[in-house]
Amino acid sequence: MRAVTLFFLAFLLISHTKSTAQKAALNSGKSGKKEIITGADQTEKYLSYLKGKRIGLVANQSSIIGKKSSVDSLLSLGIKIVKVFGPEHGFRGNASNGAVVNSEIDAKTGIPIISLYGRNEKPTKQQLEGIDLMVFDIQDVGCRYYTNINTLEHVMTGCAENNKELLILDRPNPNGYVVDGPVMTEDRFKSAIGIHYTPMTHGMTIGEFAQYLNGEGYLKQPCKIKIIKVANYNHDMPYVLPVNPSPNLNTQQAVMLFPSLCMFEGTAINEGRGTYMPFTILGAPALKGKYAFSYKPVSIPGMSERPNHKDTVCYGLDLRNYDINQLKKRRQINLSWLIELYKAYPDKARFFTPGRANQDISAFDLRIGTDQLRKQIIAGVSEAEIRKSWEPGLKKFRAIRAKYLLYP
After folding, report:
1. Domain count along the chain
2. Which of 394, 365, 392, 359 minimizes the C-alpha distance to 378?
3. Are the C-beta atoms of 355 and 362 separated by less than 8 Å?
């Protein structure tokens, strides 16, 4: 019976290997460019490493092998998953931004689902008991304020403290071409939406970022990591995400505009939350008469229950058809929209949302990682001068980043 089981598992492994090779060959095209293949889809490179081990999997709805959930796929291939750890938005990806996510038992598989966005962000010693190997497979979008890299650091810390190895199934960064924005350099700007001394967009994949965390001393002790690299990938390549990485990044347009439009959280401007067009539109009631485009944010369970300007008509910019290739050509976050809407806003004293009590740090500052940009916008500093002020920090960070890159 055991021989039959081993033969069946070997057959599945060979089938997956053949399928991956055929997939790359069929999609090489006349240009000679091969298809991007995620680390997760290259099962031939890691299944044997997982066999016989009790696996803890850090995953969400973006964790797929082919078109199936990584959990379901690995279970069908005979891998023993004993626990699943979920980040912000939960394992199923259906919790609103910032919502506390509770641990539970998965109804389909009976596997315990442990939330890393609830009572604890770092997996505890008790939660890691009974696990031989941790696996991290979550899609990121390349921004300091997108919390998956926070989860990565917390998982690496927990693994290092409890002598657990972490296998990372790497995925492309859809914004991997851009390293831009002010670099966070002061601890006072750390928050749940930013804990790393990087620019707003870091231009690294999860695998590269893990090497950066180890190499730059973010952990008291390095985490033992093994990375299954993305095949046929470089940072300049376009990558359309096969699954929405979070509820409010529900289109490719939103994913590409996210680095630029997420800056507006912490201002009086609604960035599309409370609509089915998040991160592709901008507006506020106070801009009535200055812009023709309008929309009304409402409460949408699983996306945004309490959006800015809920149930009030907003006026502003419609960027759903904006040519995102313009961002790639310039390799920059779009700063002009922030400057434009600040100038158009009638009550400038209320444009930036207050932050921590008794501190001169606004909610906007926490997202940006510094208070300098807010002060520059208020003072009317030109975009060219603002960008010039970023360059020393960006130059230093690019040199650091270069040490950890896995791809051109």
Report:
1. 2
2. 365
3. yes
213 in a structural domain:
yes
Per-residue pLDDT averaged across 31-38, rounded? 82
Cα 353 to Cα 267: distance, rounded to the nearest angstrom = 5
- Residue tagged 């009535």 (tokens): 288
Is residue 26 a part of any domain in this protein?
no
CATH number assigned to the domain comprising residue 153: 3.40.50.12170
Residue ranges making up the domain that contains 266: 252-370
Residues 224 and 313 in one domain: no
The residue-averaged pLDDT of 223-240 equals 97
The chain-wide mean pLDDT, for the chain, equals 90
Per-residue pLDDT reduced to its tens digit, 281-324? 999 999 999 999 999 999 999 899 999 999 999 999 999 999 99
Phi/psi of residue 204, each to 5°? -125, 155
Q: What is the pLDDT of residue 327?
A: 86
Is the pLDDT at 4 greater than 70? The verdict is: no
Round to whole Å and give the CA distance between 11 and 14.
Answer: 5
Q: Which residues of 56-70 are buried (b: 16+ CB within 10 A; e: fewer)?
A: bbbbbbbbbbeeebb
**What is the rounded CA–CA span in Å between residue 122 and residue 132?**
17
Helix (H, G, I), strand (E, B) or coil at 113: strand
Run of H or E including 367: helix 363-368
Contact (Cβ atoms closer than 8 angstroms) between residue 234 and residue 212: no
Res 24: pLDDT: 43
Sheet of 104-105: strands edge to edge?
104-105, 112-115, 80-86, 54-59, 133-137, 165-169, 225-228
Q: What is the spatial distance between Cα 103 and Cα 57, in angstroms, rounded to a whole number?
A: 14
Task: Report the pLDDT value the prediction gives residue 101, as an integer from 0 to 100.
Answer: 54
Q: 212 vs 96, which has greater pLDDT?
A: 212
